[in-house]
Amino acid sequence: MTTPIATTVADLRATFDSGRTKPLAWRLQQLAALRSLLTEQAETFQQALHADLGKSPAEAYRTEIGFTLNELDHTVQHLQEWLRPKPAPVPDAFLPAAARVVRDPLGVVLVIAPWNYPLQLALAPLVGALAAGNTAVVKPSELAPATSAAMAELLPRYLAPEVVSVVEGAVPETTALLAERFDHIFYTGNGTVGRIVMTAAAQHLTPVTLELGGKSPVVVEPGVDLAATAQRIVRGKFLNAGQTCVAPDYVLAIGDTATALEPHLAAAVHALYGDDPAASPAYGRIVNERHFDRLAALLDDGRTVTGGAHDRATRYLAPTVLADVSPDAPVMKAEIFGPILPIIAVPDLDAAIAFVNDRDKPLALYAFTESEHTKHRLTEETSSGALAFGLPVSHLAIPDLPFGGVGESGMGRYHGEYSMDTFSHTKAVLDKPIS
């Protein structure tokens, strides 16, 4: 019999209120158990990720299991240092006195994970929640049912249900969870649901982290190595069949770069996936028919440079590059979140910056340029969750960099010590002698 959600949350709060989650040794013990789960059950998770998204074992390990292990190991290595109280200077007027800053755990946190990286985006935030001394509910995505079922079955074997509880289900279960009082809600997904989460959290004045998405542009300037540029764009774009929140969404090609880049993108797709990407074990599938239909409807929004093949029965949509795309085309209206890459030609850097700034702030902005002046201008004149030169997507694998959005692409950040900030209260302590 399924435990009622209110009871689950009450049990987690009782654990937290007991004080057992605060010692460093307890936190390290939970992280060690999570590490054992990921290493001992790697094959089970790889099979589940293949069933849900067609991910190869190598991709599943690299982007989900191995990614989370790296985050976990970095946290374990630095946790004692991060928890050490930090002294703060005291103005002369208050002396003698001492001041310090300490991190307090928040309590019970809710992690709502998406379907595109259903393991990583459930467990990487959990690393931070446990390291900070919290208990947690993990709500996997019902759109990745095999991975959700694997987590629901396996997590309780490694982490006590009164420490971490998995709640499966769809909208009714999520709605019931959001009716409960949590001390932090961490949501990864789209802006529509993000607003629902934030509205529910407001009823309890619960802080939220919203990891959303957006159309992440790639600016390509004349003079760069177009073959190398194309290879890096293709690897970032078509990973997980384009279903990545920080994937390059479209190319802003400056000057005559648009036409020159086309054959290099086609060659890079062929080099990565072969003559028939449908037969490549390295290429995934669209998560379900609804998303497939949405993406297939965008294929006529430009001239096909490469790709375009699709099969609804197998949820296959080829890595596709579109040229001669109008900025007003449907493919440019919302985040694509699939294996379609439009190329937009712009006359100069001024036009590229204006194009970016006229739209919602993206989760990431990428640029391929040899100009330090261009790098400076993009840094100073645009706003995005992250900015990367010469390499899309990989910034989120650097644990000392914050990962998060701005504006429509989200709020809050995590990874490494930033996860400790997210899942802790930074408390000021002042100690002045009475006499």
Topology at a glance:
Blueprint: H1 5-17, H2 24-40, H3 42-53, H4 57-83, E1 86-88, E2 98-105, E3 108-112, H5 120-131, E4 135-139, H6 145-158, E5 164-166, H7 171-178, E6 184-188, H8 191-202, E7 208-211, E8 217-220, H9 226-238, E9 250-254, H10 257-273, H11 289-296, E10 303-306, E11 310-311, E12 316-317, E13 320-323, E14 340-346, H12 349-357, E15 365-368, H13 372-381, E16 387-389, E17 410-411, H14 417-422, E18 424-431
Parallel strand pairs: 3-4, 3-6, 4-5, 6-7, 8-9, 8-15, 9-14, 13-14, 15-16
Antiparallel strand pairs: 1-2, 2-18, 7-17, 10-13, 11-12
Helix pairs in contact: 2-4, 2-6, 3-4, 3-6, 4-5, 9-10
Structural summary, described in words:
- The protein is an alpha/beta fold and 435 residues long.
- The protein is 41% helix and 18% strand.
- It contains 14 helices and 18 strands.
- It has helices at 5-17, 24-40, 42-53, 57-83, 120-131, 145-158, 171-178, 191-202, 226-238, 257-273, 289-296, 349-357, 372-381, 417-422; strands spanning 86-88, 98-105, 108-112, 135-139, 164-166, 184-188, 208-211, 217-220, 250-254, 303-306, 310-311, 316-317, 320-323, 340-346, 365-368, 387-389, 410-411, 424-431.
- Strands 10-13-14-9-8-15-16 form a 7-stranded mixed sheet, with helices on both faces. Strands 5-4-3-6-7-17 form a 6-stranded mixed sheet, sandwiched between helices.
- Strand 8, helix 9 (226-238) and strand 9 form a beta-alpha-beta unit.
- Helix 3 runs antiparallel to helix 6.
- The radius of gyration is 23 Å and the shape is globular.
- The relative contact order is 0.14.
- The model has no long low-confidence stretch (mean pLDDT 97).
